[in-house]
Amino acid sequence: MENVNEPKTKLDEVKDLIFGPDIKSYNDQISELKNHIGQNREEVMSKIEEVRNKLIEAIQTTEKNLNQQIADLQKATEAALDKQKQSHVSKRALNDVLVKISEGLRSDAE
């Protein structure tokens, strides 16, 4: 059995053959890339949250504006309908007056 405390084991020698002596450099670069990816992920998640909040705010503002426009249109429609009803009543009253005048004229002519 080999001594585990040997400075360089056979496994280390195989790693050196496969990857070369720069394996530590590769490991350091991979660690650096992982850290960079982690930082970018945090930035991206922060920006996503910021955009999400802005979208929610925009949706709420749009909803508020649409509700106000609907209320304004409803009031305008009701006002137009009331005006139409008043106009219709006036026409009916005018018709009734003209009928009475006509009947009065007929009875005077007879």
TrEMBL record:
UniProt KW Coiled coil keyword: yes
Chain coiled-coil ranges: 23-83
Domain of life, per lineage: Bacteria
Keyword set, alphabetical order: Coiled coil
Protein name stated in the entry: Fructose 1,6-bisphosphatase
Species annotation: Microscilla marina ATCC 23134
